[in-house]
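Please produce the structure of this protein holding erythose-4-phosphate.
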Amino acid sequence: FELYLDSAHCEEIRALSKVLPLAGVTTNPSIMAAGGVGLTQLLPVLIEILGPKSRIHVQVISNTVEGIVAEARQLHGLPFDIVVKIPANTAGLAAIKLIKQHDIPVLATAIYNVQQGWLAALNGADYLAPYLNRIDNMGFDGIGVVSDLQDLIDKYQLPTQLLVASFKNVQQVLQVLKLGVAAVTLPLDIAQQMLNNPATDAAVLKFEQDWQAVFADTLSFG
Ligand code: E4P
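Below is the modeled complex.
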């Protein structure tokens, strides 16, 4: 299983990397813009934070087949483990088909329905990123799309895996985990939500108070 953070905010990623077993980071143009740092600067910092084996998913900016292919080759030439994110539209699907002839790792992104994911998988995408919350917000069934894609992957033994994206609450994360997806990418606030439980904090405080009432400041072996 691979756990990613969906962010380009280095200091928050650094803090969370101390607690979470991160496989890497996913970005898209909006996330990069929010981080405010270009790729040349960002990549070495992410590798310093997450270690040399971490995997970074970087989205192309081009929207023509030729442009996407050229950008993918450039990204693949960088000395990092980069997966090229390509939107699963007509130009993107054509580009994925060409790019996979060069064995470049690809994630088909912005997947809103089963057929997009299915076609991207047939064209060789290594990862599929269904946009769970955005699908829900359109009035469709995000979990249903993820579940159908996972069924097709299993039934046809497709050489691809789901990296589910676009979460707005923890329940959505738990639901896709129960479907057996290979990876998720969490926004920083959702990762934080999963770490914190006020009931645990209250329990720890009570343990401390009970201990100190009898043993003052000694530690457990004191
Ligand atoms: C991930 O890589 C996607 O681009 C991202 O999760 C989309 O999420 P959003 O719906 O929160 O923008």
